[in-house]
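FW: tagging you since you asked about this chain on Friday. Here's the raw sequence from the shared folder, copied in full. Didn't touch anything.
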Amino acid sequence: MENRTQKITAAQNRRVSFDVIPGHFATSNSHVSAYIDMNGIKSSFRSAKEAAKELATGIYGVIPVDTIICLEGTKMIGAFLAEELSEGLHGINSGNEIMVITPEFNTYNQIILRDNLQPMVRDKNVLLLASSVSSGKSIVQAAECLAYYGGKLMAAAAIFSDVDNIRGLKIHHIFGHDDIPEYSSYKQEECAMCKAGKKIDAIVNSFGYSKL
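HL: got it, structure written out here
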């Protein structure tokens, strides 16, 4: 499987890249035609900082952000993104504090915020940060949970997103569908690869993959 690995590099910043493995992969919500490995960007402080700079260009001076909620292990990127938004000369958040938090999840994959974290979200301008967005189901679910806690979701950001917006919510991203044109996401019961009899290569999530 690994011998099919391809490196995808951002056209606007050659220091931001990730690996893609074409195949048939199962997530908790869908089946996808490629595994996108974001662990290098999420684990390397240099790569995380460069990714944050790229994400900040779309958010900078346009969207007020009080709190960044980091999903899928993106907290280091979130910290650098907060720095970019709070220290920029022309940013709407220039000089202001930005909180960066990682939420808990219950057995239904819904966000849980403990009492001490809720004031960082209630009546605050919130940015959701994820590593990748395919169907957008996780973003929709997170948005519903934030509404419950009284947060004002302003936008979402991801290193890769297969969609530009979800229910009117703009997804700021570095990489999109044009960067991985062969990428497809299916509901499990509608998977074209399953119907074609193609074996699942691995189970994947934000931490990595487990071969079958």
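FW: Residues 45-59 form the longest helix (15 residues).
HL: agreed, and Residues 65 and 128 are 10 Å apart (CA to CA).
FW: great, closing this out.
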